[in-house]
Each structure stands twice: as C-alpha cells, then as structure tokens.
Amino acid sequence: MGFGPIVEGSSPSPPAIFEMKIATIILAAGKGTRMKSNLPKVLHKVLGKDILQYPIKALEQYQNNYIVVGHESEKVIETLPENIRYVVQEEQLGTGHAVSIAVNDESFVNEASDYVVVVPGDVPLIRKEDIENLISKVSKSESAVGFLTAEIDNPFGYGRVIKDGDLIQIVEEKDCTDDQRLVKEINSGIYCFNSAFLSQHINQLNTENAQGELYLTDLIGIANLENLDIVIVQVSEESIKGINSMGQLNEVEDLMQKELIQKFMDEGVYFQDPTSTYIDSDVSIASGSKIYANSHLKGNTTIGKNCEIGPNAQINNSTIGDNSKVLNSVIEESVVHENGSIGPFAHIRPGSELGENVKVGAFAETKKSKLGKNSKVPHLAYVGDAELGENVNFSAGAITVNYDGQDKHKTNIEDGAFIGSDVMLVAPITVGKEAFVGAGSVVTKDVPSKALAIERNNQKNIEGYVDRKKKND
Questions:
Q1: Which of 179, 308, 328, 399 could lock onto 382 through a cystine, CB 3.0 to 4.6 A?
Q2: Of 97, 201, 296, 379, which residue is the catalytic one?
C-alpha cells in the first residue's frame, strides 16, 4: 500500500459500518491539573451532565466499550454505566501508555475487534456522525489508522498535523519547532486504528520527547515508516473542542447552551434573553412556552405547552404542566399540573405535587405535600408533610407544624376546607371537609367536617394604659 488519501469533511457512513466489530477506548485517567480542582476533570459538568457522559453517549452503539481511569479512579468508576468496562492506569505516563493498558487487558484481547476507536474523555461536543464517518473512511481504504483534525485560528496547546509530501506527522506543542507552531491544523486526539496494527505496535512506543511520555501519536510515525495508509478526516473546530481549564469548560458550555436554546427556538419556544438563561441538556420545553430572563432549568425538567417561566425562575428535576406560570420562584423535584400559578417568591420543595389550577403565591412554601385541584396557598404560608384536598384555601401566615423535635407528622386537609390567617395546625391532624379554622388559632385536635374550630383567648382591653405608662416613665 501507499500512503492513504487525505480525506477532508464529513459524509454519511454506509450501513456496512455496523457489520464490523468495533471496540472503543475512552481516555479518562488524567489529573486535569489546569482545572485547579479536586474533582477529576471528566466529572465536571456541562449542561448538567459529567463531561465524560458525552463521549460515552457518542460511542454507546459499539460492541466493546472501555474506559481508562486513573486519577481519583473510584469517583470516576462510580459514574460509569454497567455496560462499560474499565481498566486502571496507576501511573499517568501518556496517551500511548493508557491505550496499551486497555489493549493488553485480557478481556480486550479475548474480544477480538476489527477496529479500535480511541477518544479523549473531555470532548463533550463530539458527534457520533463524525466517528461513524472516520470508521467508514478507514475501513473502506483499508488504512492502518485515521484521525480527526480541524483548522483553528489559535492552535496553541494542540498537537499539529505536519504534512511533508506523503508523510504525515502529529507533533505535540512542546515538541514543535517555531515553523511547526504556525500550522493551524490540529489533532483532535480522536483515532480509528486497524485492530491488528494497534495490537502489533502499541508496545513499541518510547519516551523520547519533551514530556518523557508514551505518545499515542507516535503510531502515525510508525505507519509512515511501514508505508501504510493514513486517513485524515477534517471536521469543525467546535466538535473536537477539549476541556483543560475552567475557561475552556465555560467556552464549551456556552457553545452547547447556544445550540440547545436555538433548537428550542426552532421548535417554537420563546426566549426573552438567551444570554441570561441556563438550560441543562435533559430539559424538555414544549412549543408555545415563554422563558423569561435569568431563568435556570436544570436536570430532568419538563415544561409543558404555553407556559410562562420567569423571570428569575429556578426549576430543577420538575414537571410543569401546560399553561402554568412560574414567577421569581424555585421549584425542586416536584410536579405542577396544568394551569398552575407559582410565585412570586414561592419555594416548591422536593416531593410536592400541585394539582390543576393550584396557586402557591408570594413567599409561600410547600414541601413533600400534595395539593388538590383548585386549592390555594396565596401568600406567606408553609405547607409541609401535608395533603390538601380540592378547593382548599390556606390563608396568609398559616403553617403546618409538622416537626415535634424528633419526628415529622402529616396534616390532612379535606376538600373545601378554609384555613384562616395565622393558623398553626399541629400535626398529626385532620381538618374535615368544608371545615373552617378561625384566624389566629393553634389547632391540636382533629376538626370534624363542616365544623368551625377556634382556639384563642377572649380579647381584653385595658383602658387608660398608655396615659398611665407615660406617667410612670
């Protein structure tokens, strides 16, 4: 074979790719020292997910998937899906060393593959279509190796792709000459190797470089020496953008956020100020909804049709039903059904379920409670560990006293009950259907259906009190 063609750009891969046996290796052993964090680099989050989860997702369709872990390996292993196998790189001696540990692992050897894809663990923008295209190009040309590259304006820190006639080299930043540093085509660190070529040569790498490490890129040089085909597939800069610092983490997350918000806008969602809005990757928003400035939607949150969210709303792992409004409020791990009205300045804490047409208003709070259809907690109230039926009015200043200093207790308020202002319901307690509790009462016993409960002392007026007080002063 001669040196293979340089292939630029992407195109759909043929179905034949799925007839081959593909192994994948994700490199996730590094310390990420430039992050200046105790948390392993690959466990920092982008749009609510660990960085590592993105390459895992991009490669999940292949048969034999491995991850090389090292620094804080226990933390990384805890996050891995069950179908991912891992190997531990005790000492981080370079990318070539990391791949050699995986390739020499007994289970890897026993699971013979046609091709091996190697991907860094810090590339959350990676596109599975680019991986498929790379495998297709390598297999079609029967090349020894192929890799993704990109042309970028500022290539500092990246390995450069150096072409000299038919010769192709990848030269790491610290090993580059001044002229080589001017080259703008960079190596992504994403490879597809012919499995036989990789197994034969992975243990032949040496540490004769500025870093004193085993470079995986040296396999490109070996392919050159053996006159084997090498394929280059050039892709967009964004799709291979790695993360090595908090600044780069912010850049990547900003790119992904803009792309996600644009997708929602294309589907009929209005954003008042996309630059102040934060949305995690697992969030779902139906068409017709409006997201106002400075709103944060996180985790597995679902927003129904024609909702108004914000400004200043924070919703985490919650479901908001159609036609609901959430103003200046926090909702966590809860469900708001259709036509809900939340806020301003309400706090819906975990375990709350608010039925149709429920209102939780200004400075009101719920926790681990169920509120039935058409019930209202208009303002300045606390409903915790409670179940309210339909059409209940829970007035200003009223609270459920759910904690006795040792245990939590439940409050039941049945359909149509009216709880007056500044009431304390000391749980466990039940307020029956259509019962009334008078304002200012501290209720410690069950209230029968349609009864009026009042607990307060008789009012006493002391005539002339102010004049006497002034005289004594």
A1: 399
A2: 379
